[in-house]
Predict the structure.
Amino acid sequence: MNVKYKFLNHTADAKFQAYGNSVEEAFRNAAEATANLMWSTKKVKPRIKRKVSITGKDREQLLVKFLEEILFLLDTDDFLLCSVKELSIKKEKADYALEAWFLGDRISDESEIFGSVKAVTYSEMIIEGNDHYLIQVVVDV
Amino acid sequence: MKLKQISEYIWEIPKQGDMNVPAIVYSSPSLLESMRKDLTLEQTKNMACLPGIQRAAYAMPDAHQGYGFPIGGVAAFDMENGVISPGGVGYDINCGVRLLRTEFFEKDIKKHKKALLDEMFARVPTGVGVGGSIHLSSKEIKQVCTKGAQWAVEKGFGREEDLERTEEGGCLKPASPANLSPRAMSRGSGQLGSLGSGNHFLEIQKVVTIYDRKTSEAFGIHSEGQILVMIHCGSRGLGHQVASDYIRLMENEIGTRGLPDRQLINAPLKSKLGRKYFESMNTAVNFAFANRQMIAHLVREAFQTITGTSEGMEQVYDVCHNVAKFENHKINGREAKLCVHRKGATRSFGPGHAEIPEAYRDVGQPVFIPGSMGTSSYVLAGTQKSEQLSFSSTAHGAGRVMSRRQALRSFRGEEIKRELETKGVDLRAKGWRCVAEEASQVYKDVDEVVKISDSLGIGKLVVKADPIAVIKG
């Protein structure tokens, strides 16, 4: 699959669809889409990495918490995401658990940040698929 | 969706299906047209399905699609069966507007304008990933969240009289920072005193029209050409995290089954979790009050540096437009304590209300309705009529009609800046992209929004002001 994600029109906020041959790939692409609403991931070098470990009671909550991690690391660590590596999702008893590495860099004077995302919402959220996964997210900007 | 027109600007979605009350939309045919294009009306209907909702679910004239509640949604819940919903407040808790009046006139400012704008842009941290002017320890952040604007004034950011002229005196109680997650605290610790980004702005305006001189004079606005400064921002990352945290806590404890929209997750007002959300929301409210207090101080300092004086730069008022509060309202002729959610709506208490500062008690609470970049903003006064029509609420802004993506395709930041300059408006922004995204054409006609508010009597027109210098976040 060539297209990783696609931005869609949404009156007040930002909406995107991310795709993948697995749910993990779709999650990774959703993270890239979210970051690209704020900066160009292509312009960020993978200089440092941050471990992400989260749980969610369903896949929707897991996705919200996962994407929120990008906003959290930006606000608290000046971290700009470049790419997501080694992402795994496991079902553990009642919960879903996600582990991944965020690769990226700290904000510098050269960083160009052109947009903000305040929060990740459940509005119009879709996570579906078997062979090909589709994720749709609306974020509050 | 089928709407019943009640009068010129009042439309009803009659009670049907799971609705507990009808929904009332304050709009004109042209604004209604844009509401029909997205989920505004469905979301207004969804509010009416929540338990304990009183009288009606309301959509203000600037209402547009949100998540959970529409932006511009007002709903009040009774204490016994009602709920509190983070989706009914919004992620940017206590996003709001503060207005300073000055004794400067356009002619005094003209030669200083560019220097002033640069000075303000240098002093007020702006944009994404840009922190505040100070970094707070966790002890300090707890104090900010408990005391609100009072904390800032005690630290020397502003004047005691600013507090009297702030909704709730700049501090909502009870606020318990103990309920804040470490994540919320750490997101807030570096952001106090910063504008943020998106639709947030700092603007120098000139008064162009005074509609009601008695009221405007009570607000300290006496002449056409008088300079005002408007600040629009909220609780930054701290507030966003509080909303996200409590949406999740409610999902885990209460579950999402039966909700028409997962963003409408809520907790009973009587529950421990409902109470905890309220007290945590209040901490974010207080953080936002302190944030605007500090920015106002930085603005005064900029004026002092460039013009040599900040005398007469008094605060007119500071309003929240994303909040839930306990207020007394009349239900079936009886006074009742309700939890009023205003998401993208401004409180508009009328003359005589005890919550209004004494100086304004005869004329009503000041209400600020900012326009979009380059268009007029308005000062209104709250009315007694709004009590019956909208639980003392009115609009909060222009409301978007075009997506940011569409805006980026349609406009170029550089061109918009030039266009504004030909209209006498100078602009400073962190990047061109946010300028294009916030082009005035992407917003509803604010003139129409305030006209409806005035005609309905939920907020009375007092002053119209045009921007002369804008800082975009």
Observations:
- Chain B touches chain A through 48 residues (CB under 8 Å).
- DSSP finds 16 helices and 19 strands in chain B.
- The CA atoms of residues 256 and 385 of chain B lie 37 Å apart.
